[in-house]
Specification:
By secondary structure, this protein is α/β, with parallel strands linked by helices. It contains twelve helices and 17 strands.
């Protein structure tokens, strides 16, 4: 299956599951391909045939965007160097969850969550550590007895009780012995923030390498540059987050502004593009346009925010 077909399949699965789904991002070298939202779940998705092609730089960019927008990054793939991705298994690369479209469909459309995750050394399941410890203590079962039953060490049982994943065979032996389900379903959309966005955030006194973005710093915004996105930065203060584009390529102004508008609508944020020359309109879609000349005259972040809000609501 071609990558384009894979992307279309992912979009179709999300749409059938009730997600509002963005168009496929058609700009090259972008760190994601699709954004989808359902209720409070916002997904930033990259689709690759072979997930080994997913680079650390790409993962960092996805994490920056996900953390800034309160979203979850997800990689959809078909194969890796080890072979085809199996249905019902959650893989990961650079701590970003990976599933196949089959697993995604099973999870969202059939309401059958995955239970197995791949990690160095093999396949594992997540044990409900609280129930395991509670059952052991209530029934007066020793660590040694559980260890012998599962075929692991006493120390491993203790680690199960603190949240460590278990090999599948060991978990099934424990379930059979305890006569109680202890294996938990996995949420492929779960993402533990690494605070990577704040590490790349630039505040007043720093430099972005762009005069326009530095101007945003000077009027009170914190700026996180985006190298592989359809916009160049995420600018924010305590109340507002702006997807911020620059018209470095005149021929792509409309395309980039429309993509930013779509993403801002899905993420419940606002988007702005800083342009060299005044355009025929003050907005493209819901992306506000502000000229360099206008930006130079703004000396307070609230003024810029007011302009963006007024222009982004025009249709």
């Amino acid at each position: 299956m071609s990558r384009e077909d894979m992307i279309n399949t992912t979009r179709a699965i999300l749409a059938r599951a009730g997600f509002d789904v963005s168009s496929a991002i058609s700009i090259r070298s972008i760190c994601f391909d699709i954004v989808g939202r359902r209720d409070k779940t916002l997904l930033i998705i990259k689709v690759l045939s072979n997930v080994d092609a997913f680079s650390r730089e790409n993962s960092d960019e996805m994490k920056i965007m996900a953390e800034a927008l309160d979203a979850s990054p997800l990689l959809i793939g078909e194969t890796s160097s080890s072979g085809p991705l199996e249905k019902g298994i959650v893989y990961s690369r650079f701590k970003i969850p990976i599933v196949s479209n089959e697993t995604l469909a099973e999870h969202l459309l059939e309401e059958v969550p995955p239970f197995i995750f791949a990690a160095p050394g093999g396949l594992y399941v997540k044990i409900d550590s609280d129930i395991l410890k509670q059952l052991r203590e209530e029934r007066g079962i020793s660590l040694g007895t559980l260890a012998e039953t599962a075929g692991v060490s006493r120390r491993t049982i203790q680690m199960y009780e603190t949240g460590m994943g278990a090999m599948i065979d060991a978990a099934l032996r424990l379930e059979e012995f305890l006569d109680t389900p202890i294996v938990q379903p996995l949420d492929p959309f779960e993402y533990k923030k690494e605070d990577i966005a704040s590490k790349h955030e630039i505040i007043l006194g720093g430099s972005t390498g762009s005069q326009r973005l530095d101007r945003l710093l000077n009027i009170g915004f914190a700026v996180t540059p985006i190298l592989r996105g359809p916009f160049e930065a995420i600018s924010k203060d305590s109340d507002t987050i702006l997807l911020t584009g620059l018209d470095s390529d005149q021929s792509k102004i409309i395309q980039k502004a429309l993509i930013a508008a779509e993403l801002s609508n899905l993420s419940d944020r606002h988007s702005v593009m800083i342009v060299q020359k005044k355009q025929s309109s003050d907005n493209i879609g819901t992306t506000a346009l502000i000229t360099d000349e206008e930006l130079k005259k703004i000396d307070d972040k609230s003024v810029l925010t007011d302009i963006v809000l007024s222009r982004s609501t025009k249709r």
